[in-house]
Automatic annotation (TrEMBL):
Oligomer and partners: Monomer.
Localization per Swiss-Prot or TrEMBL: Cytoplasm
Species of the source: Acanthisitta chloris (rifleman)
GO molecular function list: fatty acid binding
Keywords assigned: Acetylation, Cytoplasm, Lipid-binding, Transport
Protein name, entry field: Fatty acid-binding protein, intestinal
Residue ranges of the TM segments: none
Single GO cellular component term: cytoplasm
Entry's family note: Belongs to the calycin superfamily. Fatty-acid binding protein (FABP) family.
Domain (Cytosolic fatty-acid binding proteins) ranges: 5-22
Primary site of residence: cytoplasm
Lineage: Eukaryota, Metazoa, Chordata, Craniata, Vertebrata
Any single Pfam family the record assigns to this protein: Lipocalin
């Protein structure tokens, strides 16, 4: 699959506004915008292994398409939800445990970049990665 590989953050679009909508405080927003995130994605059929390594934490997530799982964001926000494939796009729908609001995330290849889009409370943000 085209998503497989290691990806390093190149740039953000509207990421601080997204974090603000999520309730992330100013200090964490400033740090989060420069987290030096690297994502390694491995797909085997409907199963995914995703390793996220940043200046703040390294975690490994395993999930199966369409199967709900729990996940914590770097700021500690806890979510539950699942990923599904829509064409060549990974689409995640997650519900915050603290307030029941929905966060959507998309991962897709655009040209030679991995574009990760987040949508929360009407605020859309993109994080664009290059192959490492």
């Amino acid at each position: 699959m085209a998503l497989n590989g290691t990806w390093k953050i190149d740039r953000n679009e509207n990421y601080e506004k997204f974090m603000e909508a999520m309730g992330v405080n100013l200090m964490k927003r400033k740090l989060g915008a420069h987290d030096n995130l690297k994502i390694t994605i491995q797909q085997d059929g409907n199963k995914f292994n995703v390793k996220e390594a940043s200046n703040f934490r390294t975690i490994e997530i395993e999930f199966t398409l369409g199967v709900s799982f729990e996940y914590s964001l770097a700021d500690g926000t806890e979510l539950t939800g699942s990923w599904n494939m829509e064409g060549n796009k990974l689409v995640g729908t997650f519900t915050r445990k603290d307030n029941g609001k929905v966060l959507t995330a998309h991962r897709e290849i655009v040209g030679d970049e991995l574009v990760q889009t987040y949508i929360y409370e009407g605020v859309e943000s993109k994080r664009i990665f290059k192959r490492a």
